[in-house]
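dumping this here before i forget
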Amino acid sequence: MSKHISTEPVLERLFFNNRVPVVILFFIASVVLSFQLMGLRVDASFEKMIPLKHQYIMNWLERRDDLGSANSLRIAVAPQDGDIFDAEYMDKLQKLTDEVFYLPGVDRAAMKSLWTPNVRWLEVTEEGFEGGPVIPQTYNGDATSLKELRINILRSGTVGSLVSNDFKSSIVELPLFESNPETGEKLNYAELSQALEEIRDRYAEQGINLHIIGFAKVVGDLFEGVQSIGIFFLVALAITFVLLFAYSRCLKSTIVPIICSLIAVVWQLGLLSALGFGLDLYSVLVPFLVFAIGVSHGVQIINNIAIESAKGAEALKAARLTFRALYIPGMLALISDAIGFLTLLVIEIDVIQSLAIAASIGVAVIILTNLILLPVLMSWVGVSKGVRERGDISKQKSPVWSLISRFAHPYVAPVSIVIALCGFGYGLMMKDQVKIGDLDPGAPELRADSRYNQDNAYITANYSTSADTFITMVETGPEMCASFETMQALDNYMWHMKQVPGVQDAVSMVTVAKQVIKGLNEGNPQWQTLSRNQYVLNNAINNGTASQLYNKDCSLAPVLLFLEDHKAETLERVVDATEAFALANNTDDIKFLMATGNAGVEAATNEVIGSAQNLMLVWVYSVVSILVLITFRSVRAVVCIIVPLALTSLLCQALMVHMGIGVKVATLPVIALGVGIGVDYGIYIYSRLESFLKQGMNLRQAYYETLRTTGKAVVFTGVTLAIGVCTWIFSPIKFQADMGMLLTFMFLWNMFGAIWLLPALARFFVRPEKVKKDEDMPAVTL
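structure:
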């Protein structure tokens, strides 16, 4: 025995000769990290969702003090009966304005409502300019006051923007700070959304409907949907337990892998908290994957222990032999997973990088909990007699595995290769049709029938100005924004952009200046133009109405483009048109810079994703290929394992086209996750196949034995992973449902590709034998 032990790997001797200390260390670590878990926070911020290093965002951040927040809420206040010219409605609007004024994080100076003093009217009379707040100082709710209010609203130019086209609702606009000015802490969108919902419910009881849109509300609604994730986790846990028990028919072999996988989840969350990381709306899904990956590797270990036990090995020896056989392919698979996830760090958006870190930490701890702790625990508990009997593959004759092993036959393999080539061709053709960004109006992260998207549809239908704004920053020297040259450039840009499909309107200080100049000339429309007289231009913008359309030293003038939607095609047209105009018109004195507004931020995000997606794929496939090459020391092995993954990635992109899913923050990580996890199948199958080939078997015999020993575990793993994420499809959060659909497809197709395409590739690259009379006939035939 001692002679045998001396030939055992060092890690095997370390762990199995010290089982009690190993388990104690795992127990202590689990207790410590469980306490750390209590401090874990789930957060989200506007800046985590955007690419802070993109030039558009940097342009905005440098000028944020002048431009204000790109993150705002719009609340449409609609009476259930009648219109806004009602004393009771105006009273409730005033109370609502006062109430939301004190919500945390509101930029109160920039807030707008019919009741705020910065919403004014202006007209030219025989005696000069007259103006004032839309709500007259003499307002008392009587018929005369309401008539004057109607006149003021019509004179203010707010119809279609702050007041609906049918006068049946008005907007309260709330720009938000990233942090709460009173506490200095990051704005809590979940609490803000909850406060808004309480206000909504209270006013609904008073006959007033509120329709609320904006980034903060989207995040708040997503947080509400995230609360259901715990239920999905419990459902996935129950399904996994049932499937694993049906697979092993042994309670011990079911409970121990699940416990080890749950420990991995606890460790992952505890380590994230200890390292100062939190969970956001995307990385909160990672514990699902960590649990599923842990179970999948646990199945391989249980399967191998059953086989060794069937050969007569007692529990300890079976566990040691299993560790010896699987720790290298298991380690390779998990390291490939972790490094594959880390390739997401090339995408400079915080939420994606947080997801990459969370997933990598989770996979790293699986190396400890499922490759070390699991076999150590099984060395004590062992497997049941029924498991040992089913693990005796020498007595098993499977016509199914015999049929599947024909994929390695010299006559069948070429057919598989041709089918795969057709799949590659189709995938490459569809790849060009994959869109970057959102393909649906409203908030695509939520379902079309969600309350938010219904609110967005209401505002879009009843207001002329869209909620999707693309703001171009026009920068000049100090006190030069009102010069004729700058105003003319602004005017030309606005006209240029109004011709772009998808642009509803354009507004800048020029819009106000032209109106004032027309008013100064008896309202004659022929005078609605820019004057070359600088005194006239200065007078046109110094009346208070245009003050929010340029900064304090008149060196920055934003142009607001109101878009029909924020779909990828619309944003591409706007960006291309702006870039073309800037290239032709930028000078040392006047510069057109992109971009802010929710559509500008979306455009920047789309550009980052568009440029990063191919780089991410190159990195993930390069890293996985290098690790496979180092482990198997064979380029042929790399081809056999990687090609099925590449086919699945292309077919996944084709599926996205058919499902109308764009490549965006929520879906971009899916392919990296699918490749990182999917490589496990190929590694386990190829490792077994190679060991049988080294024993002198021909390819089909070796593949048949591979299927008998590990095929069932691989199929079970693929199905378990797919079912685990398939439950996401029923989530109220659409991006989680989309991720669930795509990951289900990738897990199943990666499993199928490893079983179907890998042996066909091996026929050509590993063992290109000629056909003989009894070539490749396994022991069991049909």
